[in-house]
Amino acid sequence: MHAIAIDGPAGAGKSTMAKAVAKALNYVYVDTGAIYRTLGCHYEMLGIGPKDADGITRLIGDAYIEARYTEQGEQRMFLNGEDVTGLLRTPEISDYASKISAFPVVREYLLDMQRQIAREHNVVMDGRDIGTVVLPDAEVKIFLTATPEERARRRFEELRLKNPKTSYEKVYQDLLQRDHQDTTRKIAPLRKASDAVELDTTNLTIEESVEAILKLAQEKIR
Ligand code: DC
Predict the structure, then answer these.
(1) Architecture of the domain spanning 3-212
(2) What is the pLDDT of residue 127?
(3) Residue whose CA is closest, atom 10 of ligand 1?
């Protein structure tokens, strides 16, 4: 099986690039952020706060999480048999996912499932620690970046479609906080793998970024 790992901070364009690359190569696109978000959803539904270490540890085994892929290659997330995909992309769940992802018990719980998907399919997997921890042997590793202002602008445009009252300043502050949480946690923090190629997408079009990744893939995967 082949694997392309794409890591980077929120709003760098990981999912957009990863989806397009997966489509071009006929690989499965795996959004690991959605897996953390699904677990965040579990705790939110149970009324367990995202920093409640005891509650998180006690109730983790009650979350049966599954990623299923449609014929079109779309990832749907199931929590205890229920499709929760539509609930995952809110600012509250973003914060839950970021906070709970700092607990070792959470990272351990979700690690095998991510590796299992990569054992069964050729994947383009995006996240924070794919090149460093989940798939250290991935043939292609990309670290996507963009300035915080540009990343906040992209997130703002996305959220504004769902909620016209969204404020850019709030999106920007949330993003800085999430960057801080994701890069400073002790276990598997967001960082570039030593053998990853850094791609700054601030001034690149989607097509240019996708092309750069496909070119690397062509060189490395035979
Ligand atoms: O990619 P995303 O914004 O949907 O991810 C949500 C949060 O999940 C992110 O802030 C940190 C966590 N996460 C992680 O710790 N490791 C991953 N591989 C993917 C996401």
Answers:
(1) 3-Layer(aba) Sandwich (3.40)
(2) 96
(3) 98
